[in-house]
């Protein structure tokens, strides 16, 4: 009887516990989520490459250095409201569904980016011009607060366990494709129209492109279904409600917005801190390369704008080419080794990379940019599969939104502002390298406490496989393992009853 009770406690998987993914639905989910990131980072690429031009248009009375700082201050202001967006959209996504919130964030993001193209200049309306730019950036930041966490959650909850790294990497593939499209468009326009043409009216064109991109992305997201993990969680909550447990005041408080927030910071605080450390590592590197590096090379080092733009654009194309390979590698070798290797390399190679960039010309700066691109892809190819796995299904969107956006707001989005300000104040052109090295140390500490999740089910969810054959094989293996585990426990209990041999 004891053996029977032990066997019951060590339950194996049933066929209902294993989700078999639908490949066409997975492809649609990955494409729609990645397209939203493409849209978001198209704007970032445009804004980073137009920093000098926007400074002249919206802050003409300042010195060139102050114009750049003012433009990046407006850029950073959008990140101050991202935690608010995360607090609103994250818990909302856990309650009403991922798909609905992702459609809403797409609308807000596309509309606010499109509106920048219609803004009047400082010469036309004075101080109202930068204020209107700030309003558009705040709306962008608020909507983005629910975008990346929702997109990573959506892909992670659709992906088979053994391919989550590869499929998740397509989200950040969209990120860098969007950045490359935005920065490439600005580079072409600058070459065709010249600096004066871009300052007069050419700067508006990239923002106008955001409108049609947003419509396409919205259409794709409206066609999506809810994730299997969320559907199962929703069905479970409905069953609990019908059984009467939903009338429990304690359970009602737990399911409320305040109850979820309290649970995130009391029961999952370690996962929140690990998430913030990894996000800091990824986003400081990301914004240093994508948002600050073009301005650093042109404004600080005095390189021609076209040269600096082409070098960073080439770096982004390198990341695009390698990112899915890194994602697939993390499925095979694990997320933790990739993050660990990238953190150590960031500490060791940041200074040599910036020394190469400072040499001038084309070849050595290109080599320095390539080093930074290889460092960045270690984090970009792994983040989307690592971060959602830190939290359980019922809290995943909210917890990830809050942790991600707090870290991005404080450390990631402010990277161009802080770095440009420190370079301006100290005159030390190696400040960006030191900044990256500090980020590498913090990321290394976070990775040390990270538990490996590659090939394993998400917390709070059952296994996900690609075919019915894989599901049957998994169930059979789990039954065998459960039987062996129960047998081993029974043998130990029997030996305890019999006592030591005489």
Polypeptide structure, described:
By secondary structure, the chain is mostly helical. The longest helix is centred in the middle third of the chain and has 39 residues, at 164-202. It has a two-stranded parallel sheet. It is 80% helix and 1% strand. It is globular.
* Apparent shape: globular
Tell me the series of helices and strands, N- to C-terminal. Answer: HEHHHHHHHHHHHHHHHHHHHHHEH
* Unreliable runs: 1-9
Number of helices: 23
In whole angstroms, the N-to-C terminal distance is 27 Å
Number of strands: 2
Q: List the strand order in the largest sheet.
A: 1-2
Instruction: Look at the structure and give the mean pLDDT.
Output: 83
Question: What summary fits the major beta sheet?
Answer: 2 strands, parallel
- Strand residue content: under 5%
Rounded to an integer in angstroms, the radius of gyration calculated over CA atoms is: 25 Å
What is the SS-derived class?
mainly alpha
Helicity, as a percent range: over 70%
Topology:
Elements: H1 2-9, E1 19-20, H2 23-49, H3 51-58, H4 64-80, H5 82-96, H6 98-116, H7 122-125, H8 128-144, H9 147-158, H10 164-202, H11 204-222, H12 228-242, H13 249-255, H14 257-267, H15 269-300, H16 305-333, H17 335-357, H18 363-380, H19 383-386, H20 396-412, H21 415-426, H22 431-448, E2 464-465, H23 468-498
Task: List the main descriptive attributes of the protein structure presented here.
disordered N terminus; mainly alpha; two-stranded parallel ribbon; 80% helix; 502 residues; 1% strand
In short:
With 502 residues, the protein is an all-alpha fold.
């Amino acid at each position: 009887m004891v053996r029977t009770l032990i066997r019951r406690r060590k339950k194996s998987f049933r066929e209902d516990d294993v989700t078999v993914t639908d490949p066409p639905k997975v492809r649609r989910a990955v494409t729609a989520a990645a397209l939203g990131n493409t849209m978001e980072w198209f704007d970032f690429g445009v804004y980073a490459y137009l920093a000098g031009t926007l400074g002249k248009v919206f802050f003409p009375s300042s010195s060139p250095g102050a114009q750049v700082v003012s433009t990046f201050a407006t850029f950073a202001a959008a990140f101050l409201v991202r935690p608010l967006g995360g607090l609103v959209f994250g818990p909302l996504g856990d309650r009403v569904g991922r798909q609905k919130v992702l459609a809403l964030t797409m609308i807000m993001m596309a509309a606010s980016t499109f509106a920048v193209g219609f803004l009047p200049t400082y010469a036309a309306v004075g101080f109202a011009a930068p204020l209107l730019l700030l309003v558009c950036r705040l709306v962008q930041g608020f909507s983005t607060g629910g975008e990346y966490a929702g997109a990573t959650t959506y892909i992670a909850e659709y992906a088979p366990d053994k391919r989550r790294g590869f499929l998740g990497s397509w989200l950040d593939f969209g990120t860098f494709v969007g950045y490359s499209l935005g920065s490439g468009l600005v580079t072409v326009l600058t070459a065709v129209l010249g600096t004066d043409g871009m300052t007069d009216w050419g700067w508006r064109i990239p923002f106008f492109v955001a409108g049609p991109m947003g419509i396409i992305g919205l259409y794709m997201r409206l066609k999506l279904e809810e994730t299997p993990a969320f559907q199962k969680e929703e069905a479970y909550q409905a069953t609990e409600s019908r059984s009467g447990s939903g009338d429990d005041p304690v359970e009602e408080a737990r399911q409320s917005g305040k109850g979820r927030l309290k649970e995130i910071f009391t029961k999952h605080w370690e996962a929140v801190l690990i998430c913030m450390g990894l996000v800091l590592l990824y986003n400081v590197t990301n914004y240093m390369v994508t948002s600050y590096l073009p301005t650093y090379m042109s404004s600080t080092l005095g390189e021609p704008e076209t040269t600096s733009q082409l070098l960073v654009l080439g770096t982004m194309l390198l990341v695009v080419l390698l990112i899915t390979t890194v994602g697939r590698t993390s499925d095979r070798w694990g997320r933790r080794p990739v993050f660990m290797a990238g953190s150590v390399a960031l500490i060791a190679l940041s200074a040599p990379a910036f020394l190469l960039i400072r040499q001038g010309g084309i070849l050595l700066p290109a080599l320095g940019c390539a080093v930074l691109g290889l460092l960045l892809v270690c984090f970009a190819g792994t983040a989307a599969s690592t971060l959602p796995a830190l939290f359980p299904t019922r809290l995943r969107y909210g917890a990830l939104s809050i942790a991600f956006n707090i870290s991005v707001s404080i450390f990631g989005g402010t990277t161009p502002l802080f770095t440009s300000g420190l370079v301006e104040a100290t005159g030390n052109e190696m400040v960006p390298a030191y900044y990256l090295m500090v980020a590498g140390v913090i990321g290394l500490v976070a990775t040390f406490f990270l538990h490996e999740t590659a090939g394993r089910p998400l917390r709070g969810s059952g296994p996900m496989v690609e075919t019915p054959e894989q599901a049957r094989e998994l169930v059979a293996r789990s039954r065998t393992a459960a039987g062996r585990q129960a047998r081993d426990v029974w043998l130990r209990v029997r030996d305890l009853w019999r006592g030591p041999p005489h």
